[in-house]
Amino acid sequence: MLIQLCYASTRKDHQELLQDLSDILTVSIRFNRLHNVYGVLYYAHNSFFQCLEGEKETVEKIFESIKKDQRHQNVTVLSKKEVDQVAFSDWSMKYVQSNRGVDLFFKAKNYEYFQPTKLNDIQVGEFIQHLLEAEEVTLSKVSADAESFNNNKGYKRGYISYI
Ligand SMILES: Cc1cc2nc3c(=O)[nH]c(=O)nc-3n(C[C@H](O)[C@H](O)[C@H](O)COP(=O)(O)O)c2cc1C
């Protein structure tokens, strides 16, 4: 049985944000590809939103280890449902960078900024559709930005677009 599980969480200070994102995406893409798991990750305003799609047991298992991950806390399931097919079939883990389109999406729902835990069931579905159509940022771009950030301590221009 295929399921789609979406949750939100709060980032905990760990390493530099870009390094964390690059590490998370590296592991996710490798593991998910091997296990036929698909999905999307969005990060902004100190919150993550992630959808995981795939075989129920596999998704539940990976979600158990994600919940224990020290890089975030307050992991809250927003929706979990059986699906006929995965929506993010093109991506082991699509990463969408913080963007104005998402800010406008939340403003239109009368939320000041990206606050995924406020979304109701229907709005979660709309947000997933929004992320499906949004531009992807590749792991190689995130990794290159992380490296350039690490090599230029204090140089934040590239960093801003991630928060
Ligand atoms: C926000 C967030 C999203 C994550 N998404 C995934 C994912 O989709 N797939 C995955 O394998 N690991 C993901 N991880 C990493 C896992 O939590 C964990 O580090 C990884 O599965 C390795 O687990 P292990 O160290 O117990 O082997 C994510 C971590 C965070 C913080």
Automatic annotation (TrEMBL):
Residues 2-94 form the BLUF domain. SUPFAM superfamilies: Acylphosphatase/BLUF domain-like. Transmembrane segments: none annotated. InterPro entries: Acylphosphatase-like_dom_sf (IPR036046), BLUF_domain (IPR007024). Pfam families: BLUF. This is BLUF domain-containing protein. It comes from Acinetobacter pollinis.
